[in-house]
Amino acid sequence: MGAESACTIExxxxxxxxxALFESDHLLFRSDAIRVKLPLSELxxxxxxxxxxxxxxxxxxxxxxxxxxxxxxxxxxxxxxxxLLDKLGVKxxxxxxxxxxxxxxxxxxxxxxVGAFGxxxxxxxxxxxxxxxxxxxxxxxxxxxxxxxxxxxIWVVHRKGKEASLRDVDVFAAAKRAGLVDNKVASFxxxxxxxxxxxxxxxxxxx
Length: 207
Prior knowledge:
five-stranded mixed sheet, alpha+beta, elongated
């Protein structure tokens, strides 16, 4: 999950108070009355003035009034977005395993950062990227948990939107059964999302 803040926007000539969220690929404003989503890839201009974020998208102007310091921080994120691997926590020297994830761009980025990576379950793995599209496939989480270092992570990658065959709640339930907890969600690509699962701190060193 991304950053969240109190926010006020102008809508239909009136000020509306609500909550703003800065997610990996979009900005979201929501209140009891309205919901506004601005994909970062569609923004044509962004600026921060007087604690307000000034945004333009497809000829529309948006002004999001935020608490002191938040607008400048979010503007920096908009103008200098983190790479996918940064969002996924992949660092040089890590032992990474990729299972059933077919994404050429991701594989290219991963190879550039960590070099060779595994395609089979292996002991003492830092990060497992696990592509799955069925409930039955989630049964592998228990075995994958045993392959991790104590502070390692499993990213469950699956389709999102109307084509999704799994829901995030399905992943969370399977994680609980496998002795894992979820602590982050990321947009993996235009078609796929990913949830990060880790061993609870209280259980580390016991797997």
